[in-house]
Protein backbone atom coordinates (compact mmCIF):
# COMPACT_ATOMS: atom_id res chain seq x y z
CA UNK A 1 0.00 0.00 0.00
CA UNK A 2 0.94 3.63 -0.14
CA UNK A 3 2.41 3.82 3.35
CA UNK A 4 5.60 2.23 2.05
CA UNK A 5 6.21 4.86 -0.63
CA UNK A 6 8.54 7.83 -0.48
CA UNK A 7 9.93 10.69 -2.52
CA UNK A 8 10.43 14.45 -2.86
CA UNK A 9 10.27 16.65 -5.95
CA UNK A 10 11.50 20.20 -6.58
CA UNK A 11 10.35 22.64 -9.25
CA UNK A 12 10.97 26.23 -10.30
CA UNK A 13 8.08 28.61 -11.02
CA UNK A 14 8.00 32.30 -11.98
CA UNK A 15 5.12 34.71 -12.38
CA UNK A 16 4.49 36.88 -15.44
CA UNK A 17 1.37 38.63 -16.62
CA UNK A 18 -0.65 36.53 -19.04
CA UNK A 19 -4.18 35.49 -18.15
CA UNK A 20 -3.30 36.67 -14.67
CA UNK A 21 -0.50 34.15 -14.12
CA UNK A 22 2.10 32.04 -15.86
CA UNK A 23 4.47 29.40 -14.60
CA UNK A 24 7.68 28.00 -16.02
CA UNK A 25 8.12 24.25 -16.29
CA UNK A 26 11.44 22.47 -15.99
CA UNK A 27 11.64 22.43 -19.79
CA UNK A 28 11.23 26.20 -19.93
CA UNK A 29 7.76 26.11 -21.50
CA UNK A 30 5.40 28.80 -20.22
CA UNK A 31 2.22 27.42 -18.64
CA UNK A 32 -0.96 29.41 -18.16
CA UNK A 33 -3.99 28.82 -15.99
CA UNK A 34 -5.70 27.63 -19.17
CA UNK A 35 -3.12 24.83 -19.53
CA UNK A 36 -4.78 23.07 -16.61
CA UNK A 37 -8.33 24.30 -17.14
CA UNK A 38 -8.06 26.77 -14.25
CA UNK A 39 -9.90 30.07 -14.01
CA UNK A 40 -7.98 33.12 -15.16
CA UNK A 41 -7.62 36.22 -13.03
CA UNK A 42 -7.07 34.50 -9.67
CA UNK A 43 -10.68 34.77 -8.41
CA UNK A 44 -9.76 32.82 -5.24
CA UNK A 45 -6.54 34.68 -4.52
CA UNK A 46 -5.53 34.34 -0.87
CA UNK A 47 -7.60 31.23 -0.18
CA UNK A 48 -5.96 28.59 1.98
CA UNK A 49 -7.20 25.02 1.61
CA UNK A 50 -6.71 22.08 3.96
CA UNK A 51 -6.30 18.71 2.32
CA UNK A 52 -6.90 15.54 4.38
CA UNK A 53 -4.49 12.86 3.21
CA UNK A 54 -1.66 10.68 4.43
CA UNK A 55 1.80 9.72 3.35
CA UNK A 56 3.51 13.00 2.46
CA UNK A 57 6.70 11.18 1.50
CA UNK A 58 5.04 9.09 -1.24
CA UNK A 59 6.72 10.15 -4.47
CA UNK A 60 3.68 11.51 -6.26
CA UNK A 61 2.36 13.28 -3.18
CA UNK A 62 5.69 14.83 -2.24
CA UNK A 63 6.09 16.20 -5.75
CA UNK A 64 2.61 17.67 -5.79
CA UNK A 65 3.10 19.28 -2.38
CA UNK A 66 5.91 21.25 -4.00
CA UNK A 67 3.63 22.14 -6.91
CA UNK A 68 0.79 23.47 -4.71
CA UNK A 69 2.36 25.03 -1.61
CA UNK A 70 3.89 28.43 -0.92
CA UNK A 71 5.67 29.82 -3.98
CA UNK A 72 4.46 26.92 -6.12
CA UNK A 73 3.24 26.84 -9.69
CA UNK A 74 -0.34 26.36 -8.52
CA UNK A 75 -0.19 29.31 -6.15
CA UNK A 76 1.26 31.57 -8.82
CA UNK A 77 -1.48 30.56 -11.25
CA UNK A 78 -4.39 30.84 -8.80
CA UNK A 79 -3.34 32.63 -5.61
CA UNK A 80 -4.48 29.53 -3.67
CA UNK A 81 -2.24 27.69 -1.22
CA UNK A 82 -2.85 24.19 0.04
CA UNK A 83 -1.81 22.56 3.30
CA UNK A 84 -1.45 18.81 2.89
CA UNK A 85 -2.22 16.84 6.03
CA UNK A 86 0.14 13.98 6.82
CA UNK A 87 -2.09 11.63 8.79
CA UNK A 88 -0.59 8.16 9.30
CA UNK A 89 -2.10 5.72 6.81
CA UNK A 90 -3.41 3.47 9.58
CA UNK A 91 -5.40 6.36 11.06
CA UNK A 92 -6.61 7.99 7.85
CA UNK A 93 -9.85 6.05 7.32
CA UNK A 94 -11.17 6.81 10.79
CA UNK A 95 -10.15 10.45 10.54
CA UNK A 96 -12.04 10.81 7.25
CA UNK A 97 -15.17 9.28 8.80
CA UNK A 98 -15.04 11.70 11.74
CA UNK A 99 -14.44 14.71 9.50
CA UNK A 100 -17.23 13.73 7.11
CA UNK A 101 -19.83 13.48 9.86
CA UNK A 102 -18.85 16.00 12.52
CA UNK A 103 -15.98 18.15 11.30
CA UNK A 104 -15.48 21.37 9.35
CA UNK A 105 -11.68 21.47 9.30
CA UNK A 106 -10.82 20.16 5.86
CA UNK A 107 -11.87 21.14 2.36
CA UNK A 108 -10.53 18.33 0.20
CA UNK A 109 -9.97 14.64 0.92
CA UNK A 110 -8.39 11.63 -0.80
CA UNK A 111 -9.53 8.14 0.13
CA UNK A 112 -8.84 4.53 -0.76
CA UNK A 113 -11.56 3.19 -3.05
CA UNK A 114 -13.28 0.67 -0.76
CA UNK A 115 -13.51 3.15 2.12
CA UNK A 116 -15.68 5.58 0.22
CA UNK A 117 -19.18 4.20 0.52
CA UNK A 118 -19.19 4.90 4.27
CA UNK A 119 -18.96 8.67 3.72
CA UNK A 120 -19.75 9.44 0.07
CA UNK A 121 -23.07 10.98 1.17
CA UNK A 122 -21.01 13.74 2.80
CA UNK A 123 -19.12 14.53 -0.41
CA UNK A 124 -20.04 17.23 -2.90
CA UNK A 125 -21.43 15.91 -6.23
CA UNK A 126 -19.14 16.99 -9.04
CA UNK A 127 -21.07 16.31 -12.27
CA UNK A 128 -21.97 19.92 -13.01
CA UNK A 129 -18.39 21.04 -12.45
CA UNK A 130 -17.06 18.20 -14.59
CA UNK A 131 -19.44 19.16 -17.41
CA UNK A 132 -18.67 22.88 -17.15
CA UNK A 133 -14.94 22.26 -17.38
CA UNK A 134 -15.33 19.60 -20.08
CA UNK A 135 -13.33 16.97 -18.23
CA UNK A 136 -13.12 13.78 -20.27
CA UNK A 137 -14.19 11.03 -17.88
CA UNK A 138 -13.75 8.42 -20.65
CA UNK A 139 -10.02 8.89 -20.24
CA UNK A 140 -10.20 7.05 -16.90
CA UNK A 141 -10.45 3.27 -16.38
CA UNK A 142 -13.95 2.06 -15.53
CA UNK A 143 -12.76 0.72 -12.17
CA UNK A 144 -11.54 4.17 -11.19
CA UNK A 145 -14.86 5.79 -12.09
CA UNK A 146 -16.86 3.16 -10.20
CA UNK A 147 -14.92 3.83 -7.02
CA UNK A 148 -15.43 7.59 -7.46
CA UNK A 149 -19.23 7.33 -7.79
CA UNK A 150 -21.82 7.06 -5.02
CA UNK A 151 -24.79 4.69 -4.81
CA UNK A 152 -27.06 7.26 -6.51
CA UNK A 153 -24.77 7.61 -9.50
CA UNK A 154 -23.20 10.92 -8.45
CA UNK A 155 -19.52 11.36 -9.20
CA UNK A 156 -18.06 12.57 -5.91
CA UNK A 157 -14.36 12.30 -6.70
CA UNK A 158 -11.86 12.50 -9.51
CA UNK A 159 -9.26 9.72 -9.78
CA UNK A 160 -6.02 10.99 -8.29
CA UNK A 161 -3.61 8.12 -7.56
CA UNK A 162 -4.16 4.65 -8.96
CA UNK A 163 -2.40 1.34 -9.39
CA UNK A 164 -2.98 -1.80 -11.43
CA UNK A 165 -1.34 -5.03 -10.36
CA UNK A 166 1.54 -6.17 -12.56
CA UNK A 167 3.84 -9.19 -12.65
CA UNK A 168 7.45 -8.30 -11.82
CA UNK A 169 10.07 -10.91 -12.70
CA UNK A 170 13.83 -11.39 -12.92
CA UNK A 171 14.74 -10.96 -16.56
CA UNK A 172 18.18 -12.54 -16.13
CA UNK A 173 16.76 -15.64 -14.47
CA UNK A 174 14.12 -16.08 -17.16
CA UNK A 175 16.72 -15.63 -19.92
CA UNK A 176 19.15 -18.04 -18.31
CA UNK A 177 16.48 -20.75 -18.01
CA UNK A 178 14.79 -20.01 -21.34
CA UNK A 179 11.45 -19.29 -19.68
CA UNK A 180 8.48 -17.46 -21.14
CA UNK A 181 6.76 -14.80 -19.06
CA UNK A 182 3.59 -16.46 -17.70
CA UNK A 183 0.21 -14.98 -18.53
CA UNK A 184 -1.97 -17.12 -16.23
CA UNK A 185 -1.73 -17.95 -12.55
CA UNK A 186 -1.49 -21.62 -13.46
CA UNK A 187 1.59 -20.89 -15.59
CA UNK A 188 3.03 -18.73 -12.80
CA UNK A 189 3.02 -21.73 -10.47
CA UNK A 190 4.59 -24.02 -13.09
CA UNK A 191 7.25 -21.43 -13.88
CA UNK A 192 7.95 -20.89 -10.18
CA UNK A 193 8.43 -24.65 -9.71
CA UNK A 194 10.89 -24.77 -12.61
CA UNK A 195 12.88 -21.89 -11.17
CA UNK A 196 13.13 -23.52 -7.76
CA UNK A 197 14.25 -26.79 -9.32
CA UNK A 198 16.97 -25.19 -11.43
CA UNK A 199 17.94 -22.32 -9.12
CA UNK A 200 18.30 -23.86 -5.65
CA UNK A 201 17.95 -21.27 -2.91
CA UNK A 202 15.71 -18.95 -4.96
CA UNK A 203 11.97 -18.76 -4.30
CA UNK A 204 9.90 -18.97 -7.47
CA UNK A 205 7.15 -16.56 -6.40
CA UNK A 206 6.85 -14.15 -3.49
CA UNK A 207 3.36 -13.90 -1.99
CA UNK A 208 1.65 -12.41 1.07
CA UNK A 209 -0.83 -14.10 3.39
CA UNK A 210 -0.36 -12.01 6.53
CA UNK A 211 -3.11 -9.89 8.11
CA UNK A 212 -2.30 -6.27 7.27
CA UNK A 213 -4.82 -3.75 5.86
CA UNK A 214 -6.32 -6.34 3.51
CA UNK A 215 -3.12 -6.80 1.53
CA UNK A 216 -3.47 -10.59 1.43
CA UNK A 217 -6.66 -10.12 -0.62
CA UNK A 218 -5.09 -8.44 -3.66
CA UNK A 219 -4.05 -11.58 -5.56
CA UNK A 220 -6.90 -13.64 -4.15
CA UNK A 221 -9.58 -11.38 -5.64
CA UNK A 222 -7.79 -11.49 -9.00
CA UNK A 223 -8.02 -15.27 -8.98
CA UNK A 224 -11.60 -15.19 -7.71
CA UNK A 225 -12.78 -12.75 -10.39
CA UNK A 226 -10.75 -14.42 -13.13
CA UNK A 227 -12.39 -17.75 -12.35
CA UNK A 228 -15.86 -16.21 -12.62
CA UNK A 229 -16.47 -15.86 -8.89
CA UNK A 230 -17.19 -12.76 -6.84
CA UNK A 231 -17.11 -11.42 -3.30
CA UNK A 232 -20.74 -10.22 -3.17
CA UNK A 233 -23.64 -10.61 -5.58
CA UNK A 234 -25.74 -7.71 -6.90
CA UNK A 235 -27.82 -7.74 -3.71
CA UNK A 236 -24.77 -7.57 -1.46
CA UNK A 237 -24.88 -11.21 -0.38
CA UNK A 238 -21.60 -13.12 0.04
CA UNK A 239 -20.88 -15.56 -2.78
CA UNK A 240 -17.12 -16.08 -2.44
CA UNK A 241 -17.79 -19.59 -1.07
CA UNK A 242 -19.37 -20.75 -4.33
CA UNK A 243 -17.79 -23.65 -6.22
CA UNK A 244 -15.74 -21.22 -8.30
CA UNK A 245 -14.77 -19.33 -5.17
CA UNK A 246 -13.61 -22.51 -3.44
CA UNK A 247 -11.61 -23.51 -6.51
CA UNK A 248 -9.86 -20.14 -6.78
CA UNK A 249 -9.17 -19.95 -3.05
CA UNK A 250 -7.82 -23.48 -2.90
CA UNK A 251 -5.45 -22.59 -5.72
CA UNK A 252 -4.29 -19.48 -3.87
CA UNK A 253 -3.61 -21.45 -0.68
CA UNK A 254 -1.97 -24.33 -2.56
CA UNK A 255 0.74 -21.97 -3.84
CA UNK A 256 2.01 -21.98 -0.27
CA UNK A 257 0.92 -25.27 1.25
CA UNK A 258 0.87 -27.78 -1.62
CA UNK A 259 2.99 -26.38 -4.46
CA UNK A 260 5.50 -24.84 -2.04
CA UNK A 261 6.71 -22.27 -4.58
CA UNK A 262 6.75 -19.38 -2.15
CA UNK A 263 8.52 -18.56 1.10
CA UNK A 264 7.01 -20.52 4.04
CA UNK A 265 7.19 -17.27 6.02
CA UNK A 266 4.62 -15.74 3.63
CA UNK A 267 1.95 -16.46 6.24
CA UNK A 268 3.32 -13.39 8.04
CA UNK A 269 4.16 -11.32 4.96
CA UNK A 270 2.39 -8.11 3.99
CA UNK A 271 3.34 -5.99 0.98
CA UNK A 272 6.68 -4.67 2.32
CA UNK A 273 7.98 -8.13 3.20
CA UNK A 274 6.77 -9.84 0.03
CA UNK A 275 8.18 -7.13 -2.27
CA UNK A 276 11.50 -7.26 -0.42
CA UNK A 277 11.91 -10.88 -1.50
CA UNK A 278 12.26 -9.67 -5.10
CA UNK A 279 14.11 -6.48 -4.16
CA UNK A 280 16.79 -8.43 -2.34
CA UNK A 281 17.12 -11.16 -4.94
CA UNK A 282 15.53 -13.99 -2.95
CA UNK A 283 12.53 -14.46 -5.29
CA UNK A 284 12.16 -14.55 -9.07
CA UNK A 285 8.56 -13.23 -9.36
CA UNK A 286 6.17 -11.00 -7.48
CA UNK A 287 2.70 -9.66 -8.36
CA UNK A 288 2.15 -6.20 -6.90
CA UNK A 289 1.34 -2.56 -7.56
CA UNK A 290 3.06 -0.91 -10.52
CA UNK A 291 4.50 1.94 -8.46
CA UNK A 292 7.15 -0.49 -7.24
CA UNK A 293 8.85 -0.09 -10.61
CA UNK A 294 10.55 3.03 -9.26
CA UNK A 295 11.83 1.08 -6.28
CA UNK A 296 13.07 -1.86 -8.35
CA UNK A 297 15.08 0.56 -10.51
CA UNK A 298 16.61 2.47 -7.58
CA UNK A 299 20.30 1.50 -7.19
CA UNK A 300 20.14 2.31 -3.48
CA UNK A 301 17.08 0.16 -2.87
CA UNK A 302 17.83 -3.18 -4.53
CA UNK A 303 20.47 -5.88 -4.40
CA UNK A 304 23.16 -5.45 -7.09
CA UNK A 305 22.03 -8.59 -8.93
CA UNK A 306 18.48 -7.23 -9.14
CA UNK A 307 19.25 -3.75 -10.48
CA UNK A 308 18.35 -3.46 -14.19
CA UNK A 309 17.19 -7.07 -14.16
CA UNK A 310 13.51 -6.64 -13.25
CA UNK A 311 10.96 -6.96 -16.03
CA UNK A 312 7.20 -6.51 -15.87
CA UNK A 313 4.03 -7.72 -17.58
CA UNK A 314 0.29 -7.46 -16.98
CA UNK A 315 -0.79 -9.37 -13.90
CA UNK A 316 -1.66 -13.00 -14.71
CA UNK A 317 -5.22 -14.06 -15.41
CA UNK A 318 -7.03 -17.32 -14.73
CA UNK A 319 -6.54 -20.06 -17.32
CA UNK A 320 -9.66 -20.20 -19.46
CA UNK A 321 -11.17 -17.22 -17.64
CA UNK A 322 -10.94 -13.46 -17.67
CA UNK A 323 -7.90 -11.37 -16.87
CA UNK A 324 -9.33 -9.20 -14.12
CA UNK A 325 -7.13 -7.82 -11.42
CA UNK A 326 -7.88 -5.37 -8.65
CA UNK A 327 -7.24 -1.73 -9.55
CA UNK A 328 -6.52 0.41 -6.50
CA UNK A 329 -7.64 4.05 -6.77
CA UNK A 330 -7.54 7.11 -4.52
CA UNK A 331 -10.38 9.46 -5.58
CA UNK A 332 -10.13 13.13 -4.64
CA UNK A 333 -13.28 14.99 -3.54
CA UNK A 334 -14.70 17.98 -1.68
CA UNK A 335 -16.44 17.76 1.67
CA UNK A 336 -19.97 19.17 1.65
CA UNK A 337 -19.05 21.25 4.71
CA UNK A 338 -16.08 22.89 2.98
CA UNK A 339 -16.18 26.68 3.10
CA UNK A 340 -14.13 26.86 -0.10
CA UNK A 341 -15.71 24.49 -2.62
CA UNK A 342 -14.84 26.55 -5.71
CA UNK A 343 -11.20 27.01 -4.74
CA UNK A 344 -11.11 23.32 -3.83
CA UNK A 345 -12.30 22.44 -7.31
CA UNK A 346 -9.46 24.46 -8.82
CA UNK A 347 -7.00 22.45 -6.74
CA UNK A 348 -8.60 19.14 -7.76
CA UNK A 349 -8.51 20.09 -11.43
CA UNK A 350 -4.84 20.96 -11.17
CA UNK A 351 -3.52 17.86 -9.38
CA UNK A 352 -5.69 15.45 -11.37
CA UNK A 353 -4.95 17.04 -14.74
CA UNK A 354 -3.07 14.80 -17.14
CA UNK A 355 -0.52 17.55 -17.77
CA UNK A 356 0.47 17.81 -14.11
CA UNK A 357 0.41 14.05 -13.65
CA UNK A 358 2.67 13.61 -16.69
CA UNK A 359 5.17 16.09 -15.26
CA UNK A 360 5.30 14.14 -12.02
CA UNK A 361 5.42 10.67 -13.59
CA UNK A 362 8.15 11.64 -16.06
CA UNK A 363 10.45 13.15 -13.43
CA UNK A 364 13.25 10.75 -12.51
CA UNK A 365 15.92 13.28 -11.59
CA UNK A 366 16.33 11.60 -8.19
CA UNK A 367 15.80 7.82 -8.50
CA UNK A 368 14.70 7.35 -4.90
CA UNK A 369 12.01 10.00 -5.42
CA UNK A 370 10.60 8.80 -8.76
CA UNK A 371 6.98 7.71 -9.14
CA UNK A 372 5.42 6.30 -12.33
CA UNK A 373 1.83 6.71 -11.06
CA UNK A 374 -0.64 8.28 -13.50
CA UNK A 375 -4.40 7.76 -13.79
CA UNK A 376 -5.58 8.63 -17.32
CA UNK A 377 -5.19 6.40 -20.34
CA UNK A 378 -3.77 9.32 -22.35
CA UNK A 379 -1.16 9.84 -19.65
CA UNK A 380 -0.33 6.14 -19.42
CA UNK A 381 0.24 6.03 -23.17
CA UNK A 382 2.28 9.24 -23.29
CA UNK A 383 5.66 8.74 -24.97
CA UNK A 384 7.62 10.87 -22.49
CA UNK A 385 6.08 9.17 -19.48
CA UNK A 386 6.86 5.74 -20.91
CA UNK A 387 10.40 6.70 -21.88
CA UNK A 388 11.01 7.79 -18.29
CA UNK A 389 9.56 4.60 -16.84
CA UNK A 390 10.72 1.80 -19.08
CA UNK A 391 7.31 1.37 -20.72
CA UNK A 392 5.46 0.22 -17.60
CA UNK A 393 2.71 2.87 -17.94
CA UNK A 394 1.54 1.26 -21.21
CA UNK A 395 1.53 -2.14 -19.55
CA UNK A 396 -0.54 -0.66 -16.72
CA UNK A 397 -3.02 0.74 -19.24
CA UNK A 398 -3.39 -2.72 -20.73
CA UNK A 399 -4.04 -4.26 -17.32
CA UNK A 400 -6.59 -1.59 -16.43
CA UNK A 401 -8.85 -2.31 -19.40
CA UNK A 402 -10.27 -5.34 -17.55
CA UNK A 403 -9.48 -4.42 -13.93
CA UNK A 404 -12.12 -4.12 -11.22
CA UNK A 405 -12.48 -2.39 -7.89
CA UNK A 406 -13.56 -3.81 -4.55
CA UNK A 407 -17.27 -3.80 -3.59
CA UNK A 408 -18.56 -0.30 -2.92
CA UNK A 409 -20.44 -1.08 0.28
CA UNK A 410 -20.43 0.87 3.54
CA UNK A 411 -19.61 -2.31 5.43
CA UNK A 412 -16.38 -3.01 3.59
CA UNK A 413 -14.10 -2.40 6.59
CA UNK A 414 -15.90 -5.16 8.51
CA UNK A 415 -15.99 -7.48 5.51
CA UNK A 416 -12.31 -6.95 4.81
CA UNK A 417 -11.46 -7.96 8.35
CA UNK A 418 -13.37 -11.23 7.98
CA UNK A 419 -11.76 -11.98 4.62
CA UNK A 420 -8.15 -11.21 5.49
CA UNK A 421 -8.28 -13.15 8.77
CA UNK A 422 -9.87 -16.11 6.98
CA UNK A 423 -7.23 -16.08 4.24
CA UNK A 424 -4.52 -16.13 6.89
CA UNK A 425 -6.21 -19.00 8.74
CA UNK A 426 -6.41 -21.07 5.56
CA UNK A 427 -2.77 -20.28 4.79
CA UNK A 428 -1.82 -21.62 8.21
CA UNK A 429 -3.74 -24.88 7.84
CA UNK A 430 -7.50 -24.34 8.12
CA UNK A 431 -9.74 -26.23 5.67
CA UNK A 432 -10.58 -24.03 2.68
CA UNK A 433 -14.24 -24.96 2.10
CA UNK A 434 -15.18 -24.97 5.79
CA UNK A 435 -13.41 -21.65 6.41
CA UNK A 436 -15.02 -19.97 3.40
CA UNK A 437 -18.45 -21.12 4.54
CA UNK A 438 -17.86 -19.72 8.02
CA UNK A 439 -16.57 -16.46 6.55
CA UNK A 440 -19.68 -16.22 4.35
CA UNK A 441 -21.92 -16.61 7.41
CA UNK A 442 -20.05 -13.81 9.17
CA UNK A 443 -20.32 -11.51 6.14
CA UNK A 444 -24.00 -12.39 5.73
CA UNK A 445 -24.61 -11.27 9.33
CA UNK A 446 -22.74 -8.01 8.67
CA UNK A 447 -24.80 -7.28 5.56
CA UNK A 448 -28.12 -8.09 7.23
CA UNK A 449 -27.27 -5.91 10.22
CA UNK A 450 -26.43 -3.05 7.86
CA UNK A 451 -29.82 -3.39 6.14
CA UNK A 452 -28.69 -4.60 2.72
CA UNK A 453 -31.29 -7.39 2.94
CA UNK A 454 -33.23 -9.34 5.54
TrEMBL record:
Pfam families, A to Z: SBP_bac_1
CDD domains the record matches: PBP2_TMBP_like
Record keywords, A-Z: Signal, Sugar transport, Transport
Transport found in the keyword field: yes
Signal peptide start-end: 1-32
InterPro entries per the UniProt record, alphabetical: Bact_solute-bd_prot1, SBP
NADP listed as a keyword: no
Protein name: ABC transporter substrate-binding protein
Organism (species): Deinococcus metalli
Lineage, opening ranks: Bacteria, Thermotogati, Deinococcota, Deinococci, Deinococcales
Amino acid sequence: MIKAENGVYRRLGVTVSLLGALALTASGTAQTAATYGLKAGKPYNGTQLKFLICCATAGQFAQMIKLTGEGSEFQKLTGITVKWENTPYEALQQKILVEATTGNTYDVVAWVDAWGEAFKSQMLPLQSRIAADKINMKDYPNAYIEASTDASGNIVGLPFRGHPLVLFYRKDVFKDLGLKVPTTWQDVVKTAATIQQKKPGMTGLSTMYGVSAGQNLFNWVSMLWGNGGDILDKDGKPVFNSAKGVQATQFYIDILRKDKVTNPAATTFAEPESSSELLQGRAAMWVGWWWYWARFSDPKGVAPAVLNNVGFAPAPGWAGGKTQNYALIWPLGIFKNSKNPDASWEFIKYVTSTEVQKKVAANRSIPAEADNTIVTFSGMNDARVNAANGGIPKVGAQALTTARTLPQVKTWAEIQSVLEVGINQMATGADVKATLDRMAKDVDAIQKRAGYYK
